User: What shape does this take?
Amino acid sequence: MLREAYLKAALPDRHTVLGVPLQPFSIGHQLLLERLRSPFAFVEPAAPEDLFIALLVCSQSHAEAAETLNSPELPSIVSGFTKAILRAATKPLHWWQRRKPVDLAAKLAAFEAYLAAARAIPEFEWNSDPTTELVTLGSHPLHVLKITLMSKLHFTEEQALNCPYALAHWNHATLNEVNGRLSLIDRQERAEAQRDADAFWEHCQRGGRPEEFAPCQRN
Assistant: This one.
C-alpha cells in the first residue's frame, strides 16, 4: 500500500555489508556513483572491485564521500579501506583457526538488495495524460528533484543531496499531487475501488437503495 511504501521511504531500514554500516542511499550517493561510472548506478553487473568503492561512498554522507573522491590520496584510501574490511570479514573466531573465506557474490547481492530497497518507489500517472499508462517516479532527473527540495521545501543543498532516494521522489510527486498535476496510485487499491464501483452499480441496477450498499471488506 502507498502508506507502507511511504514509511519505508521516510524511515529506511539500516543495512550493513561486509561489516560496513551504510547510510540511507540518497540522491547524492546516486550522483556520485554515476560520476564514478559505477555499474551500481546503472543497474548493471558489478565486480568485487566495484563493491568496495561503492561501500566507501555509501558509508558516508554526500559531502564526506565527495571529499574522499576528490582527495589526491584516493587510491591509497580505497586500498586501505578494502584491506581493512576484508581483514575484519575473514578474521576467525579463535586464534588457532584459519581465516574465513568471503563470499563476494553474496556480498554483491546484499549491496544490490540495499539499492533495490532504496529505489522502491511508487507509481503515478499524470493527470494531464489522457492515457492510463503508469509512469515510474525514477523517470525524474535527479537535478530536478534536488531543485524541487531546495526551492519548494527549503532544503539546503546538502540536505537535498542527503535526502533518501525514494523519499526525494515521494516529496517531488507529493508536491505535484497537491498541485493537481499527478495522482499517486496503488494497483491493489485501484482494483478494490473498481470492484466496489462495479458492485454498487449492480446493486442499484437490481433496485437496491444506495444507503443499503456495503463495500467489500478490506484486508
Residues 13-118 form one domain. The radius of gyration is 23 Å. The mean pLDDT is 85. The longest helix spans residues 187-205.
